[in-house]
Amino acid sequence: MSLADDVTKKYMQDNAHFADLFNYYIYDGKPVINPDNLIDKDPTELCILSNGKKAFSKQKIRDILKSCSIKTDGHTVFVLMGIENQSDIHYAMTIKNLLVTPENISDFRKLNTELGDMLESIKRCDDSEMFKNMIAERNGHWIISREGADLLNVLINAKITVPDGERTVDMCVATKALIEQGKVEGRAEGRSEGRVEGRSEGEERSAKLFKTLYDNGQLDDMKKAMSDPNYRNIMFEKLGL
Predict the structure, then answer these.
(1) What's the pTM?
(2) pLDDT digits (tens, 9 = 90+) for 15-39
(3) Domain map of the chain by residue range?
(4) How far is CA 43 from CA 40, 61, 71, 86, 235, in A?
């Protein structure tokens, strides 16, 4: 597991952030899931298969798994919720839903913890004008946790310094310093304009191709397209994707 996945996992293990994410995705930001009702569960999933002669086991481990009781309309529902963090594209993961990414969030105000600021910062980090607008929108008051600073330092190379013994950092001061030093404008040297948007479109296009091949029963074509970029392009053209 990469450092990016490690810090993301640690950050999302916080019940407030965990509940905020699911409330955004399921309930459009309404605080239905109470962080106090979340309970950490063993993330290991074990499946035992048998052909009548020999047993086989398969083990999968989710990044984070929590249980929760949700009461609506006088009824209580018990649910299990899990999170899988991923910092890099893995085309071998055939059928996959990217449920929440910074790019597909249109209104970060529906997130009620600093998680919204984290995701918005990631989305805007390559656009210096938008980043400056974030500072102005907060009227000089933008405080995040040490864990939030660690997350941004790893994911967008923010270079935020948190003094020893401090649990929070003033992002307005830190971000202005980044802009003055050119950390936002030229954070990734040689990065071409539109790279983030193009990467997102590429992921969606590949996912659509793999799903189409899977639905058509073309499993051999799907397997080859996942490992061979040239063949993947041939299938894009053949299927009109």
Answers:
(1) 0.63
(2) 999 999 999 988 999 998 999 989 8
(3) 3-86, 106-180, 195-239
(4) 9, 5, 24, 16, 37
